[in-house]
Each structure stands twice: as C-alpha cells, then as structure tokens.
Amino acid sequence: MALHNRLIRPFRVFACLFFLSLIFATDISADDKAAGEGPVVLNFWELSVQEELMRVLIGKFEEENPGIEVRLQLLSWDSGFDKIITSIAAGNAPDVCELGTTWVPKFSHSGVLRDITDEVRDIRGEYFLWEPTLYQGRVYGAPWLAGTRVMIYNRDLFSQAGLDRDDPPKTWNELLEAVHRIDELGPETYGFGIFAGEGDSVWQEFLPFAWGNGGEVLNKNHTASRLAERETIEALEYYRRLKEFSLVDRQAQVNQLFADGKIGIQISGPWNFTMIPRQNPDLNFGVALLPRPDKPGGVGAAFAGGEILTILSNSKHPAEAFKLIQFLIRGDNAIEITKLQQNIVPTHKNIIQHPYFQTHPNQRTFFKQLETAVAPPSHPDWVEIQEHVTRAVEEVIFRDRKPQEALDDASAKVNAILEREEDKVTMSDALITASILLPIFLFIAFKLLTLRKGKTREQRFIFKRDYASFLFILPWLLVFLLFGLYPLLFSVIISFTKYNLLTAHLSFTGLGNFVSVLIDPEFHNALWHTFFFALGTIPFTIFFALASAVLINRQVPFKQLYQAGLFLPVSTSVIVIATIFSYLYSPEGLITQAGNALLDRFSLPHPDSSWLNDVHWALPSIMAMNVWSSFGYYMVLFLAGLQTIPHEFYEAADIDGAGEWQKFWHITLPQLKPIMLFVMVINTIHSFQVFPEIFAMTKGGPLGSTTTVVYHLYEIGFHRFEMGQASAVAYILFMIIMIFSLLQMRVFRFGETQAE
Amino acid sequence: MRRERILIWISVAILTAIVVLTLMPLILMFYTSFKPAGTLFQPVSDILVADFNEGETNSIGGVIATRADPSSGITLGDAENRDPEKPGRSHTIEYRHSPGSTTLWWTHLGQDLRKFSELEFYARGEAGGENFLIEFSDINDRTISLPLKEILPQGLTPEWRRMRIPVTRFDLSGLLPGISEKRAEELRFRFTEPGSGRIYLDDIRLPFKRFTISNYTDVVISGPFGRYFFNSTLIALIVTLGNLIFPAMVAYAFARKEFPGKRLMFILIVGSIMIPPQVLMVPVFILMKNIGWLNTYWALTVPALIAPFNIFLMRQYISKLPLAMEDAARVDGANDFQIFFRIILPLSKPALAVVGINTFMGSWNTFLYPFILTNTTEMRTLPVGLALYKSLHGVDWVHLMAGSAISALPVIVVFLCFQRYIIAGLTAGSVKE
To answer: Lesser CB count within 10 Å: N end or C end of chain A?
Structure first.
C-alpha cells in the first residue's frame, strides 16, 4: 500500500504545481518584451486592401521612414471584427487598425482609441469624411478610403422599356416611373432592387431617401430619436411604392441578378464595376447620381461609408503610428488602391483632378456622389440603433405594415437606447483568472487531503486497481485541466456579471442576466426557431443516414463509390456549401425554379423572390441544406456501427425464415443502440448549436426569422459587446441541451435493461 | 435468390438517386472553378468589346477616343456596315502621322487578359497596306504591343478581314509587373508609319478560353499558399494522430473500468460538447496570450489533441465490442495496455476510421481559432488564407469555386484512403460472440 501512495503522491504534487504555474503564467503575461534596440515595430491590421499592393505601399513607407518596421495583418470582412474585439478584450490589440465608419463611435466611446485631435489639426481641411471619427468634439481616427452608393442602371432594359438610356431618372417620380415601366417588361424582370433580410445594407439603402427628404435619425445632441417625423415617414411610404416593382433580396443577390440583366435599377456600391464584367461582360450598364425628392430643397443624398485608420490607445509608438496613417491617407498612395481595386476612392479632396478620374467616368460619378453623401450619426450605440431602423423598413417591406406605425415603434426603441445608462466598474481579466483558479485550487487541495484521510483498507484496494484506469484517462485530464477548465469557468463567472468586452467594464449582477434573457421576447423567438430547426432536421438526417448505411451495407456493387459519394458533402466546409446553396435558392437558382414549378403544379403558394429571403421559407431552406450536408457523416457512423453486429445473428435469423424487415427491426436496430444514442445526442447538440449556416446565409434575417439561439448569442456578445449576457444565453442553452440529452440517454438505458 | 437480386437492384437505384442529388452541387463547384467567367449556371463565351453602333461608347460602357500630338491628326467617324444587308454601323479612323509624334486610337477595356484566348476584330484599309501597332496598356500606362505586320505581313487589305490574334502573342508580363492580375485598361491602335490613311474597324471581340486554370493560379499566387497548405497539413496530421490514440484510451477506461469520479468526468466530457464555442472564444484567447502561445503551432494543436466528441464516440463503440476476447486475453495474463493495444484498437478500426476522417476534416476546415490565434502570414492555415482572399475579391464565382475546390480536395483524398476501413470485410470475421 505504501508503494502505491508513493506512486500517487507525485501525481498530486504535479497537479498542485500545475495550478500554481497557471497562476504564475497569468502574472507574467502583463509585461511584454522590453523595447530593445532595433527598429520600432508597428502592428497594422487592415481589411480592405489586397496584400500584394499593401506590401508595396508599406515597402515605400519603410523606405521613407527608416527605423520603422510595419507588420501587416490582413483581416477578413466576415470575421475580422471578432478578431479585433477579442484582441482588444485580451489587451493584445495592434498599433494601427482599420475600422469601418459605423464602428468608430463605439470604439471612441469605449476609450480604446487614441485621441488624435492635435495631430490632425493641420490636415483636416484637406480630407472629407471626418464625421464618423468625431466623438464629443475630439477626433479618434483619420479617414482613409471612402465608399458611397450610386445609381447603377441597365441601359438595354431602359431601351426596351422605351426610356431614354442616356437620361436616367433624376427625381423620385421619374425613378418610380422608370422602375414601373421596366418591371412591366416581364415576370423575370424587376424594375428595382430593394435590400432586405440582412444587417447593414437595408438602412444604408433606405436612410438616404429620408436624409434627402430632410429627415434625420437622431436630433443634434443625440438625445432623442427623430425617426417618427414626417420626412422619414414620407420616404418610407415612397420606398413602399418602389417595392411593388422591386426584387426584395439581400444585396449580394440583387447585385448578382442585376449583373445577369434581370434588374433595371439598383443603388449599390462600386464593387459592381468590377463584378459585372466578370460575371456578365456583355451587360450594358450606366452609372448616375441618386435621384432627389420632387419637392423644393430635396437632395439626392447617399450613404457615406468608408474606412477609418485609428491608433489604439495601448500603442507604445503613437508618433510612428501616426506617420503611417499620414502616409496611407495621402492622395497619391490611396489612389493606387483605387486604381487596382476600383471599389473605393481616396478621401483626399483634390484627388478628383487626378488623371485617373478623367479616363474613368463611372468612378468620377462615384466621387461626385460623395458631395451629397451623408454619414450616419456618430453615436456609440449606432449598431443597435440601426437594427431598429432595419426592422422598421423590413416590417413595411415584408409584413406590409404602415410606415408611420413601424417608425413610431422604432423611434420608441431608439429612445430607450439613448436613455440607457452604463456601469463603469472596471475589472481586469487577471482578477477573473484569480477568482477562477483560487476556488479550484482550494477544492482540489481539499479533495486530496480528505482523500488520504478517509481511506479505508477497501478503498485503497480499489485505488490500486484503478491506477491503470487513471493512466488511461490522464491525456484527457491534462488537456482538460490546461485548456478546457479555464475558458469554461471564465464563461460561467461572467454569465453572472455585466461584462463589456471592449471596455472590460464588469459588475456583478447575480442572476440578472439569466432573468433578462428568459423574459426577452427575442430570446423566445430564437429558442422557438432552434426547436423548430432541431425537430425538423434530426428525424430526416437520421432516416437518410440509417437508410443509406443499411443499403450500402448489403452486398451492393460499387459500395465504396456510393459511400464516397454520399460522404463528399460532409467533407466540404460549411461556408462553401452555404455559398453554393445561397445561389441555388436565389430566384434564378435551380432549387427555386424546380421547387416553384412543383408548387405551382399543386397550386400551392411559393415565395416571390429568393427562398432565403422569405419569412416563412428561409429557415426550412437552411434546414434542408443542413440535412443534405450532414447526413453523410451519420451514415458513416452507422456503417461503422453495423460492422460490430456479428454475422451469426443474421444467419440464425435466415434459418428461422425471418424477412428483411424483421431482421432490420429485431437485429440491426437493437444492435446499433449505442451508436444510435451517440448519433441522437450529437445530432441534437449540433442542431441546437446551429450557427455557421445562419452566419453565412442569412445573418438571422429576414425579420429575425432565422435567428437561432447561438446566432442571437453571437449578436449579443460580439455586436453589442455584452459578453456576460451572451454567456447567460449560452448556459441556458446548455441546460436545455443537457435535459434533452439526459432524456435521450434515459430512454435508451430503459431500452437496454429491457433487452438484457 | 431472385428476390434477393431485386432487393439489391432497388437499393442500387435508391442509392444512385441520392448520390446524384448529393453530388450535384459539388460537381457544379468543380465545373465552375475552371470557367473563365460567369456564375454557376450562366455560360459566357466572349466579350463584345465594341460593335460601334453606339457612337463614342463601346459595348462594355467604356469610351472610344483618340490621342494625337498637334503635328499629327486623327479623327473618328461612322461608316457603312460591314454586311450592308444588316442594320448597324462600322467604324472608321482617318489618321495623319508625322515621325516622333503620338497618333493613336483607344478604347477602354478593363479586362484581365489571362482569361481570353484571342483578340478578334474585323478591319480593312482604304488603300491597302495600312499598318499599326496593337497595344494593351495597364492602369499605370505600361504597354505591351504587337505590330499588325506580324499577323498580316502586307498590312490591311481593301476587303474586310477577320483578325484573330492569340493573346499569347503578347508579352503579358509587361502589364502590372509584380501583380498576378493582368488587367488591360485600354486597347490601342497606334499608328507609327509616317503618312496618312484611313482604316475601317468592326466587331472587336475577346473570346474567352474554354477552360482555364487561371482561377486556381490566381488564388494560389495571392499569398504564400504553399505555406498555408503546409500549416494546414501539419496541424491536421498532428491533431488526427492524437485523436486516433488518446480518445480511444480514455474511452476504453470509461467503457470497461470502474473508478472514482467516473460519472462526473463523463458528464464533463459530454457536457463540454454542449457549450456553444462562441462564448469560449475570448477566454481561450486570453489563456493563450497568458501562456505565450499566441501565433504558435502549440495553440493550434495541443488543445485539439483529444476531442471530447471523439471520446464519446469511441466509448459508445467500444462498449458494443464483445467481451469474450478480452476475457480470454486476461486469462492468458495480458495487462490492460496489452489488451487495449492488441485487442481493442484493432477491433475499433471502423470507428477509428470515422474518428480519423472526421478529425482531419474538422481540423482542415476549421477557421475561427486559427484566424484568431495567429497573427502572421507564416502561421495562416488554408481556410484563413482563402477567407482573406474571398473577403478582398468579392463574390466572384469562378475564383470562389476554385478556392473551395482547393480546400475540399485534400479531405476527399483522405476520405478515399480511410474509407476502406469503415466498410465490412476487414473486421467482420474477427467480431464473434
């Protein structure tokens, strides 16, 4: 016995040492490597310029500024933002970072950006697009590249509809007339494209109509909403009339169909100039400024967006960082980006004289549109405010609600956001770490002590026998303790707090998060969608998987071929599959056309446009894709499970004269029980956690009809930065999944005892 | 026997139908990835650059214009259609060139020349023998050119002739040096022989190559894709190897042994699959930063070496394996490790194959953690590289599909290698009760 104690003791010592080392690790982390001799290293993160070109520009900068080395990190639009947030939350942000205009106010407000008011004083006159960088009168970034929207029209469709192809509409009435006439060309042709069913593009297309009509979202001091005022209501009423002649879909789909020559007019960005020739080189399109309201004083306003360069407040080299910014925003450097990518223009005012704009009339129109472009109010909670604008527009578009009512609602909700107060208690993640590790350490110490004390002869005997078992589970235990436990407890702890990712403001709220989540109608909605998703996919997935596994397992010729064929969709990444299916579900996609034809035959209703952009059809469409893309995996599992069934069983059944069905029911199914349980549990977990499909295809839209619990959680955590509340959602979901899994296990265990 | 055969044929028919349905989108993906332009369904054969029916605008929305020094002169005009029977017009250029000056006709193009097989147009000269340089220029005014004489040694003829000049006759490397795209901004006809004359033009076209691998090369050249590929392979191999050994070990203990804390640990294992990974992202990042593992292979491999998911799967599988062989081995004096490696592992081949494929696939396709935990180009994995490529180049179907095909292929190959272990025959004989 003493021998075994001696063997076990090192293990305990190791466990203690391990936890100590973890605590130490968190302390060491604070101080980075000291700034040595060598060049100043700047970390620069950007999203919008291709790497080849950026390296050329950086090379030029380093040549002009010896002693500065720039480390470039390219981010992607889909997830770049998550990465920036995560890095800021962990205190690991870059020196210079590109941010989209709509995000800058939130960041300035959180204090993570450096105030560069004094540095930019002399150059402010030379550039435009400063509004988004302002917060409480101070400047927190420098405008780098500008993007706006212009009117792009199909010249051939104009001729066909008897309109003058060289005289595009200049006023709202002319636009309505043109759109109407083009729409009458045929059922496959749409007059206009209205964006709906996703995040940003909806308000970016609608608000300019309101702005041009004299409307505003917020008052001057950002203390009250002006959404419910007459100008905006008029704009939304006009928008609703446009809708009758429009394809309503996500921006990418509208761009796509415009390129295919099926839409008369769209209001979109310059990426279309590069996309159209690639997709449909023969399309004859024109570009014009946005139309204005017919009333006096009406302006053809547009959305002003763009890219801002910011210095993060924890940068150790702000002076060098500013040099980099100054270099990049310079007209002669920024124009290189326009020349190669064509999708964005410099913010430097004089750049319009550059010869490039003489030979590129489309880009010139684009630059001219910037003069009447309006930037959204630079309120830190704009991201939340715009959700309500989007919602109002979508309710009018999808549900045919009265513009006045929709905007009244939105206005009330925006006011609620504006009146909200904020906690300002700050707590570092080191403190959270300590509060996680201390109880664990104490618990383990306690356990180890009591273990030794309370041990009887018999228990020791068990321990001796179990020694091998512990060696078997050791790999998992180590990885779990090292990498699983900390994140787990971290998220559990913050679920009881109000924890803002950006500012690291943290205050204990007890069960507050859980209560507010449980009474939140948005959460109820998401939960309902999630249940619907799970119940609608699991039976089909399992049916297809089991059926094809059993069929393949017979002596079918070319079984390897079938197995490979059925498994291939699983091997392709969800993002790729989502992209292909988005196309198949679009109005010109294969599935939509075949499906609509089928529905017509039985005179059943079907969506007018894209299946993914219909409140009732979007979720089932994603579910169908999910079944398609995942059943192959479960099939392979069943196939593996089928190999554990001894042949003798079937042979015995054959002798008894059992039929195929009886053999399946009485031998195959019961013998597959453990794998079936696994498949059920895993499939349930996956369905409840469905996220990438939603993220890639609908972003929760249209009108929140595909928002699942995990997508909801993602929005709360990474768009509203309320990580505490997001964690609460996660653990509520966890408990729901747990209950379902336990139920499944109970049902199966019940079966087992019956059989044995 | 007859009944048996009918059943098999029914199975084959059903399976074939399902396979066709499952494969359709993927075939579409591979097919599209080799097309020079267009979408999943839309075929494109060529670009009509200019048919000259639109005055000063060409067919792709660009301008048709001239450039000439004062000592020279060039004017444009409409002319009778090439085929007088049909409506439409052709184009005429009247030029006067003095040595040392510029005399050129140009039209906006904005196309990547690598996608096209040739430049095609109709031309004739008023007198015959007219000659000029055919030029493409890039956005920074670098030009590549080819004298018409190299195609037609005698110059133009008074009759209409159809010119078909393979794009390969031009030295494309002269455009946008250092950047893989070979976008020509303008097509130019430059007059270099002193004197004056008049030529006629019609229907300038750029026929696409039928199939092209330029989508693939574009994607691969856009970054150090060799390195991405290496990283992805290395990480996927290490993670797969770990998951082929460790989860089975743990699962064996859970399926066959009793030990204190077993229940709790099993709940932890299954429970940790149930937590949405999105809430763990930030703490994982903080943890990796604190132990100094950001931007290292460690962060991308070690935590993934043993997936709870696989433990759960292996436990379910091993619990179904018959006990007889183990008992026999134990009677022969084998210890737990011998039993595990000599009996359990070989019997678990079908499940291990599933674990192997699934882990490789998951690791290969995983995007979020490699993206968040790495900071340099050298540490990027393939999905990260592809996502960045896609992010910057927009929804361009042909490139998107090429990128997707690049990432899908290795997994398909691995599956084809592993799949024979899943199917009956190998182990069926040894599993006896």
So the answer is: C
- DSSP secondary-structure letter at A418? H
Bridge-partner residues for A373, per DSSP?
A302
Report CB contact under 8 Å: A433, B63.
no
Nearest CA in chain A to B248: A472
Question: In this complex, do B302 and A479 lie within 8 Å of one another by their Cβ atoms?
Answer: yes
Q: Which residue from A minimizes the CA distance to B278? A: A714
Is A592 a member of any domain? yes
The pLDDT value given to residue A3: 44
Which of A462, A494, A526 terminates a domain? The answer is A494
HSE, side-chain direction, 13 A CA sphere, residue B294: 23
Q: What is the 3-state secondary structure (H, E, C) of B225-275?
A: HHHHHHHHHHHHHHHHHHHHHHHHHHHHHHHHCCCCCHHHHHHHHHHHHHC
Q: From the list A491, A552, A673, which residue is nearest B279 (CB)?
A: A491
Of B28, B337, B354, the CB nearest to A580: B28
Q: What is the pLDDT of residue B433?
A: 38
CB pairs under 8 A between A and B: 397
Whether A525 is in a domain gets the answer yes
Percent composition of chain B: helix, strand, coil (DSSP 3-state, to 5): 50, 20, 30
Q: How many CA within 13 A on the CB side of residue B212?
A: 22
> From the CA of B170, how many Å to the nearest CA of chain A?
21
- For position A367, which CATH number holds? 3.40.190.10
Query: Residue A18 corresponds to which tokens in the numbers above?
Result: 């391990």
Tokens of A558: 């070319």
**Inter-chain touch A713–B280, beta carbons under 8 Å:** no
ipTM entry: 0.80
Walk me through the domains of chain B, giving residue ranges and CATH numbers: 24-34+216-422 (1.10.3720.10), 46-207 (2.60.120.430)
Q: Is the peptide bond prior to A10 cis by the omega test (within 30 degrees of 0)?
A: no
pLDDT confidence of A456, banded at 50, 70, 90?
low
Return residues 57-116 of B near A (CB < 8 Å): 59-61, 63, 108, 110-111
Q: Based on the fold, state whether residues A190 and A279 are members of the same structural domain.
A: yes
Q: Which residues of B touch A675 (CB under 8 A)?
A: 316-317, 320
Nearby residues of A83 by Cβ (< 8 Å), 6 or more positions away: A75, B371, B372
Number of domains observed in the structure of chain A = 4
Which residues form the domain of A274? 150-304
For A281-316, what is each residue's pLDDT tens digit? 778 888 999 999 988 888 889 998 889 999 998 889
